[in-house]
Every structure is written in structure tokens, then in C-alpha cells.
Amino acid sequence: MAMSVTELETYIRAAFPDAQVKIDDLAGDGDHYACSIVSEAFRGLPRVRQHQLVYDSLQGHMGDKLHALALKTATP
Q1: Which residue in 60, 67, 69, 72 is deepest, having the highest Cβ count within 10 Å?
Q2: What is the mean pLDDT, run by run of 10 residues, along the chain of 76 residues?
Q3: Which of 11, 8, 2 has the alpha carbon at shortest distance from 64?
Q4: Pairing between β-strand 68-74 and β-strand 20-25 as defined by DSSP bridges
Q5: Nearest to residue 69, comparing CAs of 41, 20, 57?
Q6: Residues 42, 69: contact at Cβ < 8 Å?
Q7: CA-CA distance, 56 to 60, in Å (whole number)?
Q8: Taking the model in full, what pTM does it have?
């Protein structure tokens, strides 16, 4: 089972309403994405914690509906 770009973006925007989000489907299969997220919520946090917050926003779908997610996070 795959996750659409729209579904992925919905999860991310629910957790980071202020975010600028850019998602690329790397393989065209809805299972491998690269995602860039710019949000004030990341300010002062180490990159590992930023990525953990993004994975948390996916509500357990990482490794299930979504196989691979290359993340780039930043603050505005």
C-alpha cells in the first residue's frame, strides 16, 4: 500500500501549519519520497529531533504505507 503526495502533505501540514513543504516522488511509485520542510517549529532543535518530529507527524505510517522518506528540514 502506497501513500499519495497529497496524503503525505496533509500529515505534515497538520503537524506544521506554518510550513513550506516541497515533496518529490523519487520513484513514481508513491513509496519513495524526498521532502523539504521549512518551519518555525524546528528553530533551536537539532536536525535529528527535527526529523523525529516529522516522522511522528506521519502517525506510524513510516515503514508501512511509506517506505522511504529523504528529509531536509530548516527554519525560515
Answers
A1: 69
A2: 89 97 89 95 98 95 87 97
A3: 2
A4: unpaired
A5: 57
A6: no
A7: 7
A8: 0.90
Give the C-alpha separation, 17 to 73, whole Å: 14
Cα 37 from Cα 22, distance rounded (Å): 7
Separation of CA 29 from chain center: 17
Q: Which of 10, 6, 5 is nearest to 29 (CA)?
A: 5
Residue 64 is predicted with a pLDDT of 82
pLDDT of residue 1: 65
Q: What is the CA radius of gyration of the chain?
A: 12
Return the pLDDT at 2: 84
Going from the C-alpha of 35 to that of each of 5, 45, 70, the distances in angstroms are: 10, 18, 6
